Amino acid sequence: MVTRRSKPRITVATRRALWGWVFVLPALAYFAIFSFYPIFNAVVLSFHSKSVLSLRPPVFIGWRNYTDLLGSAQFWNSWKATGLFTVGTAVPLVILSLLLATLIVSRLRLQRFFQMALYSPAVIPGVVAAAVWLLLLDPRGIANQWVNFVLGMTGIDHRWLASPEMVRISTILVYLWGKLGFFTIIFIAGLGSIPNSVREAARVDGATAWQLYRWITLPLLRPTTVLVSIMATILCMRTFSTQYLFTQAGAPREPINVVTLGIYTTAIRDHQLGLASAMSIILLLVMFALAVVQFRVSREAP
Amino acid sequence: MKSELVPAIIWFLKFGAAFAQVEVVYWTHEDPNRTSLEERLITEFEAANPDIVVTRVTNPADQLAQLMLTAFAANRGPDIFNMDISNQFPYIVNERVAPVDAEAAGFGSAENLLDAYLPNMLDPVVHEGEIYGLPLELTNWTIFVNMNVFRDAGLDPLTDYPTTWEEMMEVADQLTIRDGDIITRRGFDFRYPWYLNFVVPMVEQLGGQLVGDDGVSGAVGDEAWLQVLSYFREWGPSGRNLGAPTYANARALFNFDNNDIGMMESGQYQIARIGIDNPGFEPGEGWMIIPFPQWENAVADVAEPYYGHYWMVNAQSNAAKQDAAWRFIGYLTQHADEYFERVGVLQATQELVDSETFRNHPYSDVFMSDLAKANVIYYAEDAPRMQQLLQDAIEAVLLQNREPADVLLTLREGIERTLRGEY
Question: Is B264 helix (H, G, I), strand (E, B) or coil?
């Protein structure tokens, strides 16, 4: 008896899955080459001693880069600078962008204009923005003149770039100015996705405007708020160009010596690629841990 | 048939010649005066050496070190390059540059090469008995004085200029104009952020050292360091408010004589730049040069250190490129007089220093007198980090008004950690 082997049949589901892979493959390849490989490479290098200029192969030194870093006061100061900047920037960034988004959405006219005006700093590269702010914050620049005018004083140098406290505030100001519009737009999109029917129902039940905002809008906006807070935290921890340009312009390094600046100087100035990789991996792990904590907290919140 | 053959032969000859040509790529920093000179020299060199093509690429001086590092890290460095020795020294110790081919460069032998330059000027590029670069420029800084600013403040620049650091503070104070706390005219501006250049000699004048003779001790000589740190604390906004690194760099302003800067530090190349920027600002009338001040209680007569920009050749370039590169560099060194006259950079050859051109150049005597008292700049592989540590220390006293004794402890710890190779 001759049996005919039937051809394997490709189901619709399999075909769809195959096409799915075809579409996803470019993105996967992109991330594999430009994200995962560098991360993997950095993990490997962080256990080696390697000079950028040396043609010799990296020397395996185990955990020494990590123990060196953990025993260095400079490294802990970098974390202090990063922490102060992140808290000082991310918290106001979330609150202000939420307030601005609410304000813009509540307006019937000029919504587009306010969105564009707020968003425009986000399209300016960080380096250019920092360079412009350097001119404004110069002792003879507009910042001193404006603050003195508002306060009715003359000739006071507020030392925007010179005193440790003011230089921290200056970097926060520059970052807030640059990113506020971006997060406001995200909140506007989030507010737009809340169904009107829910609000209408609450109004019919006699809710005041504040009650509507507190008990309807804010809870429904939680996914957007979580997204914005995680993005803001990660972006703030990765801040670099403002601090770099400010220190190049003579601002004291210690108060704004964020981890990314340390990574840059360790790799580019000191040529120590292994040590810089270890710093990058620690930063990555901390950012990852913070993102996980934020997710969990937002899930457990009532 | 014949009419088709001739153009074909010509085409093949041209193609063959082009194929046989060696291209050398030369990366250097932007300097308009030098660009026009080197473009002409390249044209002349290529005419005399049809087998060599030189491609000159310029980048901003403050970005060159980073670009170079990235290129070399990817094994795509240029055939020829120059930077300051603090940035170049790591290329020598990491075997990324080739020893000088004295014969190809036209010196005949290493002995002749050493004899051609002033004593010790090649020391920073000598490593394990080999010479790794030829000087594009050897520079020492002194003090440039705007005589008009002195006159405006009621001082006579020829008699009232400062000779000590104590006088420098007093004179700078007299020249400074403020609108409240905000300085609108500075008396003197240190050359921030090049702290190895001006802080180290100030300490050495008092008997201190950046790194001790044992090679493991940092910031040697407490009294010397405390005196210098206290001086900068008094200089800063919490003291007599005479200036800070957050103000615009003085050397970018000085040439324009806008009554905003009295004195600043620079090298001989500044003279050519003043001539370009402001031809009416004349030496002896508008500006003059004075020696680097000394402390009243100085124990050593030390001026600002000299540093070099050296032409180096990539060790990964093939033999033909290396040979062509040294021939080209050798050709450039034969025009040391033009480099000095047109660009104001001193290649420190014995022949140039003995020449009329050099002797007749404004204030060459001041520069040479200071050069005789100068040490070479600190140029170990960790030099950029040492500079950063000095910057942190000076900013801590000058901008943050911190106690010099505390700052000295931090500085010493940082230097010693660096010397041990720790972060």
Answer: strand
